[in-house]
Automatic annotation (TrEMBL), chain A:
Keyword ATP-binding part of the UniProt annotation: yes
Molecular function GO terms recorded: ATP binding; ATP hydrolysis activity
Species assigned in the record: Actinorugispora endophytica
Name of the protein in its database record: Amino acid/amide ABC transporter ATP-binding protein 1 (HAAT family)
UniProt KW Membrane keyword: no
Ranges in coiled-coil conformation: none
PANTHER family xref list: ABC TRANSPORTER ATP-BINDING PROTEIN (PTHR45772:SF4), CONSERVED COMPONENT OF ABC TRANSPORTER FOR NATURAL AMINO ACIDS-RELATED (PTHR45772)
Keyword entries, A-Z: ATP-binding, Nucleotide-binding, Transport
Pfam family, one: ABC_tran
InterPro entries for this protein: AAA+_ATPase (IPR003593), ABC_AA/LPS_Transport (IPR051120), ABC_transporter-like_ATP-bd (IPR003439), BCA_ABC_TP_C (IPR032823), P-loop_NTPase (IPR027417)
Domain ABC transporter span(s) in chain numbering: 10-256
GO cellular component: plasma membrane
Gene3D superfamilies per the UniProt record, alphabetical: P-loop containing nucleotide triphosphate hydrolases
Automatic annotation (TrEMBL), chain B:
Organism, as annotated: Actinorugispora endophytica
InterPro entries according to UniProt: ABC_transp_permease (IPR001851), LivM-like (IPR043428)
Main location: membrane
Compartments where found: Cell membrane
This protein's record includes keyword Secreted: no
Protein name: Amino acid/amide ABC transporter membrane protein 2 (HAAT family)
PANTHER family given in the database record: BRANCHED-CHAIN AMINO ACID TRANSPORT PERMEASE PROTEIN LIVM-RELATED, HIGH-AFFINITY BRANCHED-CHAIN AMINO ACID TRANSPORT SYSTEM PERMEASE
A GO cellular component entry from the record: plasma membrane
Keyword Transferase: no
Bilayer topology term: Multi-pass membrane protein
Keywords in alphabetical order: Cell membrane, Membrane, Transmembrane, Transmembrane helix
Gene Ontology molecular function terms on file: branched-chain amino acid transmembrane transporter activity
Ranges that cross the membrane: 37-54, 66-84, 91-107, 113-135, 142-161, 191-210, 278-303, 323-348
Amino acid sequence: MAPTALDHLLEVEGVTVRFGGLAALSDVGLTIAPGTVAGLIGPNGAGKTTLFNVLSGVVRPQSGSITLKGERLRDHRPHQLAGLGVSRTFQGLNLFGHMSVLDNVIVGADRLARGGLPEMLTGLGRYQRDERELTARAMAALEEFGVADTAHALPGTLPYGVQKRVALARALVSEPELLLLDEPASGLSGDDTAELAAKIRGFGRRMGVMLVEHHMDLVMDVCDHIVVLNFGQVICSGPPAVVQADPAVAEAYLGTPAQEENGD
Amino acid sequence: MASSLRRKQAPAAATARASARRGPAGLWNSLPVLPRHLLAALAALALVAVLTSVTDGLTALRVANVGYYLLAVAGLQLLVGFSGQISLGNGAFMFIGAYTTALMVLYTPMAPLAVVMLAAVAAGCLAGMLVGAATARLHGPYLAGATLALAVGLPAVALRFPDLLGGSNGLFFSLRGAPPALSGLVSDSQWKALVVWFVVLLALVVLATTSRGRLGRRMRAIRDDEAAAATAGIPVGRTKVVAFVISAGCGSLAGACQAYLLGTATPSSFTLALSLSLLAALVLGGLGSLWGALWGALALVYLELAGEELAHAMGLGSNVANNAPVVFFGVILIVIVMAWPLGVQGALSRLGRSLRGR
Ligand SMILES: Nc1ncnc2c1ncn2[C@@H]1O[C@H](COP(=O)(O)OP(=O)(O)OP(=O)(O)O)[C@@H](O)[C@H]1O
Ligand SMILES: [Mg+2]
């Protein structure tokens, strides 16, 4: 086996995040193997987005460790993640509203350009080549998602489904090794969701994927492994069949049986 | 020899044929960004040369004024329109440029003009780095407040050190006009207008190249969504500081050009009103495009003039007349922004789109 091959692309251990008195995450651990799709599910407010924010360096955990490709991340800042091969989409779309779709995706590819500040200022050196290569990559990504014809439009003028594809293209264009998807199916039609499922399975062959999603059919369909969060705690973890059969998971989604009985 | 010549000619001919097919627009667009901007700058300089040679010395000075205001507003455009940081204090960077120029001319009289101008840029960039680093974490009204303090505070430095900076009278110096060899051909004011525009256009080439490329795109991304920009690997804080440095360098160079034209640097030219006018001109011209800076600079020079003439024609008292240009400018600003929220450039580009769409 080559020395670079790793069992775990990402290893999260004992991560705890408190917002004031609220424990958004307590002692959360999970691993993602390269070339697999891991699902992260749980009711609203369970802490899924918070875990993404910890991974991206937006939120600092009170304790715990994150190991990426065998290397521990310490006090990492959000902009350093792209360079480490981590890309994410947002629960809101967070597209750049006053930039064309093409420019949105070119920004996603920016880390692949090699010119430095002097070149960016003067137009000398790699400037022209960087521009050409980034544009070509961005167009290819837009074509992959079937939205190349919108390249010169502003995102806000496009249907929601198209905007979601643009956001995916922006995250994918940098060729990440780990892709974090926060509710990619929310607001999509049935057809679009089926297409998305095929796409996510495709990503899963090229990279590790962590999928946060409320759409259970999609999750059960595409994930190799699922982690269930409730009130910031991992209550279940395993392959889809195991998670589906676990009564604790159903309880978390439906509210505890005791509460329901009391309520009636 | 002959064969190597032929080999060289073949691709050139092919390129010429291809561009002939695409027409002049195709040829223009096929050029790399830097030569394209340099050629445009050369054309603009030729235009200024023609304009100043067919008009009188007073007009030449006004054309030169448009030049340095254009640079100051364009630098502000990069900061506000591109990186999304507000500055109510860019007049302070013009102050730095003007005083650097005055001090250099007075204390190192042998330094060539290019060195003086470069020193002004360096001083401005240094100040911009300090201000940018200090304010990188501030947003909206807090950033506005901090830069406002700069605009108010810095000119007061001239009063604190009257021996060095001349107090409220400022510094006076004399600079050479047209070189003796050209004295019969161009007047002093025409020469100075050309020098100012040469400097301004050179700086604009850098600004245009920067804003069209990765750095400009990074700034716009940060302006639109900091979190998403950081996720794409863009160093948000550093890019914001770079925007401040470039903007301050341009402001300072604009101040240096003003000092070069007037032969003075006085604190009263760099009041808060100047900083606010620069911002108003930017909004009037249109946020988000360097062309907006041109319309803004023209407005700064010619609306003030129109305001003065209006006050004069209405026979207003000097107290009222002194403020008339400001009021006039303000009224025009409000009318334009109400009619076209994206300023003059926004209206022009919409017009262009609808013409092309048909
Ligand atoms: N920056 C913050 N400051 C304070 N509280 C926060 C912050 N971010 C999240 N929270 C709280 O932490 C908890 C977990 O939120 P999080 O956004 O991670 O949930 P989620 O699992 O993504 O939910 P959803 O499915 O609704 O997106 C919630 O109670 C939320 O209100
Ligand atoms: Mg969430």
